[in-house]
Amino acid sequence: MTDAFFGGIEGGASVSTVVLTNGKGDILAELKGEGTNPWILGIEPCLSRVNDLIKEALRKANLNINIKLNGLGLSLSGCEDQTFCKTFESKLIECYPNLTNEVIVVSDTLAPIALACESGGAVIISGTGSNSLLINPDSSIKRCGGYGHLLGDEGSAYWIAFKSIKLCMDHLEDFNYVPNGYSIDRVWEAIKEHFNIDKILDLLNVFYGEKKEKSEIAKLCKTISELAEDGDELSRWIFSEAGKELAKFIQSLYPGADKKLHKENGGLHVVCVGSVWKSWGLLKEGFINQLDHHHNSQETIVDEFTLLVLEKTVALGGVYLITKKLNYNFPFDYEHNYRILFHYIHDRRDQ
């Protein structure tokens, strides 16, 4: 019997990862390329990039680049709407009929869950922006967030960077003072250095100028995390606040989870995706605080959940999704795809 070949792509706004496997689950090639968000690129340039990425993966695996895949799973940022996903699928088959026999297109929130959770679970993405989603065993979905930097992105790198800038601006103008008498000196110096500016008015060009780049602003988050690790009190406070925001995603999703997911070993499984989670040590205090102390009567009591961090590329989740759609006997290896970041039980914490 000839072997089967499957492709998976995790498509972010700025970077995409592609993975190629055989039917036995061996990864034959994995590589990174440019972003594949159809809203940013347009549908046809996005399809062309998908085609190029697969050809490049086949080349890297020393396979004939004209091999037609048995299935391709695309998990792309911006693909939230099901009608849009279906249009994208049929357009791909129409434009590139020799690329794959079958394709599935889903939001970038679905592949991480597919990779770590057999019967459903949740994901919280916190990279440049933020988003979260819960999928139940019956495929019903609860969403929270994912509306971009003007309408959301709480707890993301952009949110942390923006908060740092706004705190310093307001303090310098005697409009609002930073909490607990913290000094703004180190954070403000970091902001000036990052954007190569020397006064508040120069920020107008950063936010409203022709070259405004959300990702450039978000990159300030890394410097703030370094200051926090170095003991800067304001930076530590900002990360604690970001932790609270990320915990609110769990409070939003938790009541919508099927009882089966609540009863899993370790409670609801929540996959953590994105670079902000690398600073878990800085987020943790605010995160737990938000869950333990009820700030108003409407907040949900969350009983138990486990945060998971993926050990394999999210692109492999695309392969999991397409092989499931095809009912292909693929060796799903859930427990080797992640590690446990944190286990929470209300009123008792296991770290």
Distance between termini?
48 Å
Largest sheet: 7 strands, mixed
> Tell me, what's the shape?
globular
How many structural domains are formed by the residues? 3
Count of β-strands: 12
> Helix and strand string, N-terminal first?
EEEHHEHEHEEEHHHHHHHHEHEHEE
Helix content: 40-55%
Cross-sheet strand order for the largest sheet = 8-7-6-9-10-11-12
**Percent of residues in β-strands:** 15-25%
Mean pLDDT: 93
> Which CATH class of the largest domain is shown?
Alpha Beta
Low confidence ranges: none
**CATH architecture type of the largest domain:** 2-Layer Sandwich
The secondary structure category is alpha/beta
GO molecular function: N-acetylglucosamine kinase activity
EC number: 2.7.1.59
Keywords: Kinase, Transferase
Domain ATPase BadF/BadG/BcrA/BcrD type: 8-291
Structure description:
Keywords: Kinase, Transferase. InterPro entries: ATPase_BadF, ATPase_NBD, NAGK-like. It comes from Melanaphis sacchari. This is N-acetyl-D-glucosamine kinase. Pfam families: BcrAD_BadFG. Helices cover 41% and strands 21% of the residues. With 351 residues, it is of the alpha/beta class. The chain folds into three domains: 5-107 and 311-333, Nucleotidyltransferase, domain 5; 121-150 and 243-310 and 340-345, Nucleotidyltransferase, domain 5; 157-238, 2-Layer Sandwich (Nucleotidyltransferase, domain 5). A seven-stranded mixed beta sheet has the order 8-7-6-9-10-11-12, sandwiched between helices. Strands 3-2-1-4-5 form a five-stranded mixed beta sheet. Helix 3 links the parallel strand 4 and strand 5. Helix 6 (157-172) packs across helix 11 (233-253) and helix 10 crosses helix 11. The longest helix has 21 residues, at 233-253. The N and C termini lie far apart (48 Å).
